[in-house]
Specification:
Layout: H1 6-16, E1 26-27, E2 33-37, H2 47-56, H3 60-63, E3 67-70, H4 74-86, E4 90-95, H5 100-108, E5 112-116, H6 123-132, H7 143-149, H8 151-159, E6 176-180, H9 185-197, E7 202-208, H10 213-220, H11 228-231, H12 246-255, E8 258-262, H13 264-276, H14 284-295, E9 305-309, H15 316-323
Helix pairs in contact: 1-2, 1-7, 2-4, 2-7, 4-5, 7-9, 8-9, 9-12, 13-14
Length: 325
Amino acid sequence: MSLVDLDQIRDAAERIRPWAVRTPLVPSPWPGLWLKPESLQPIGAFKIRGAITAVSRLDPVERARGLLAHSSGNHAQAVAYAARVFGVSAHVVIPDNAPQRKIDATRALGAGVELVPVEQRFTRPEELRLATGQPMIPPFDHPDVIAGQGTVGLEIAEDFPSAPGRDGPTGRDVATVLVPVSGGGLISGVAVAIKALVPDARVVGVEPELAGDAAESFRLGRRTPWTAADTARTVADGLRTFSVGELPWQHISALVDDIVTVTEQEILDTTRRLALEARLLAEPSGAVPVAAYLHHADRLPPGPTVAVVSGGNIDPALLARLVGG
């Protein structure tokens, strides 16, 4: 399979420009770390980038049949949003352990939602695709989706030299980009852009220990799926995918420098600290890269670092519990 290239990512950047926010690089309270807050997107997560790119590249006749997707929540909202932008219908299969807030938000955007047992997350959408002939907008295992997510890396590479808190045009660029890993679409696209534009920078994936299939795959040198029961244990609901996708795995193998894991307590502590110290709302999945910086600095290279805070769709009850005391 061919890897996505920088030209595809630049094309995606033009396609998403009317609808996706070019999120800023924000200096964090922790020296040496900048935050890329994708929580500022219209649907509260980076997934809008890949969804808009993929839907925009469909043949209009095919797109008019309506869209199919499957998601644990944020991609569901992104596809629903894209369907509304292009004036078509959307039907999204969501596992029944997804947060209610994300299910409700998907419905509020006008999509039909079908809840299924987590074991049917991938099989049920394929059944629907074969039965209806509608195009599938996958959450990560597709070049158009990867290209769209890669615009995050493109913006980091272009914006970092003049980011707030920098000491002027010193010529010192970003050294490390920390990216959460689930199905692998985001880290794949970011790695393509960063390695093309900042070749000396390192791209490091971050996962929950309890959903560490990508870290294990990286260590073993082959895709190593986990079970739904395994990955369902983590509070980071956006990172519960059983395995990175086949195309993302090709990108990870070729371009990613390391994958580290963080504990549940580290994720929750970081979610709280982002809210109270950085004044930034992040869901646990979005806090994972920052958790690596705060709790595992010994695993990371020295130098200026950017953490992609991938989303902010946190469950209100969890937020209240974390900051209430």
